[in-house]
Design goal:
globular; 8 strands; plasmid; four-stranded antiparallel β-sheet; mainly beta
Length: 115
Amino acid sequence: MPLTAVPVAERVVEHRGIHWSKETAVALEFLGIWPNTPDDGSPTIWQEKETGDLIIQSWLADEATIRQAQEVGSVPGHTTDIPPHEGVFRLPANMIQFIPRPPQNSEDTGGNSGT
């Protein structure tokens, strides 16, 4: 079910050459919600139709989890600081079923796994 959403950030953030602000509307497609959700505050995943970016609502990671992630790190030379325009979330394992996978023959190398 397509949705139109407006980011809630008051500041302008640049991502992929796009300036996001509270005035920027994006077309979203609902992908899934935490199975057997008991209330209105459940993890949910949408996908931005134009870019394929995932929009995720989930539980905020606690300080201990954030410290663990910072200790593990990511790619060499990359800071583990969390910029003001980013957040760390805990997504339940059973939500992975809603994350789209690229086709088997895809050569998309847009991410950096550190390898």
